[in-house]
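As the work plan foresaw, our protein records have gained a structure token line. A representative record is set out beneath this paragraph:
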Amino acid sequence: VIVALATLQSSVQDLSRAYINHANTVLAPGRGGALDANLTNILSESGLLTGPAGAGALPAVVEPELEGKKKRKRTPHDPNAPKRALTPYFLYMQSARGQISKELGDQAKPKEVADEGTRRWTEMPANEKA
């Protein structure tokens, strides 16, 4: 039971430190830790946070950004970059869509035309697809 309580207390301390670091980052990025000092004093007085003797400050904590997975920075999209080549299916649909819509009639919905084009593509022999 004592080991479980010590583990629980350690977890609460870690959670409190992480919360304080997050709150400082989000709420007071330019104030130099005023929020940190207030929360640290309150948590230390209540016995939830124990730091180095007489320091009254947080013990050294590993930055949350270093824990877990790092987010990959994506390069911005270049609107002038060339587009990828169309697949054979899309090239087929570009050429056959008009003919299929004429065969199905004026009342044919775009989904019906696409479904019929897909059906024809799947039934088409491999040498015609290439």
In short: The helical segments are 2-27, 34-46, 88-104, 110-123, 126-129.
